[in-house]
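Q: I'm building a small set of examples for a reading group on sequence design. Run inverse folding on the following structure and report the sequence directly after it, with nothing in between.
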């Protein structure tokens, strides 16, 4: 069974370690951070001692499945290594892992975009315009009123409602005609 003894200053804290070969850990910086979630899930499992890692950016926890003979302290060390150094370029995984755009702080967003609070310089704006093109949506062609009307009747629910309306009108028309026929004399008097 894994030991739950870890350093209290660590960014990784055990939440549940009662089941041998499984541990749920709270990881600092994982909450609302999809990039760090994917980074931990990709880099933590080694295929031998650590079989799988499932990070949850909604709760900030990490579920790790591992061989029961592996001490929890080794798993925590491996997670800390991932958090502090990324094998790609040596930068901190926390530094490159940014939360989703809607949950990011203003400073993080500006840093990610390579901008500052005063805006872009004219030269930087020209460079981005050249690289990415204008900040405009493509124009769409105008549609005629007839085309809009025809599109309304291409939907299955609308067609079913039209069929139901036609069927409900038919009995009224039939009975109106039948009652007028029934009033005709069949035999001349």
């Amino acid at each position: 069974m894994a030991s739950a003894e870890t350093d209290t200053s660590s960014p990784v804290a055990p939440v549940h370690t009662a089941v041998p070969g499984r541990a749920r850990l709270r990881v600092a910086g994982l909450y609302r951070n999809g990039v760090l979630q994917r980074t931990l899930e990709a880099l933590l499992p080694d295929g031998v001692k650590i079989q799988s890692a499932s990070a949850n950016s909604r709760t900030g926890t990490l579920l790790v499945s591992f061989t029961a003979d592996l001490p929890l302290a080794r798993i925590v060390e491996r997670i800390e290594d991932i958090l502090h150094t990324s094998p790609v370029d040596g930068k901190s995984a926390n530094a490159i892992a940014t939360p989703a755009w809607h949950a990011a702080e203003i400073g993080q967003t500006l840093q990610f975009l390579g901008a500052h609070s005063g805006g872009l310089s004219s030269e930087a704006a020209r460079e981005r315009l050249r690289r990415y093109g204008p900040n405009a949506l493509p124009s769409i062609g105008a549609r005629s009123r007839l085309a809009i009307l025809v599109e309304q009747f291409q939907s299955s629910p609308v067609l079913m409602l039209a069929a139901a309306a036609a069927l409900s009108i038919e009995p009224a028309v039939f009975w109106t005609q039948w009652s007028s026929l029934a009033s005709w004399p069949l035999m001349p008097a």
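The CA atoms of residues 107 and 165 lie 58 Å apart.
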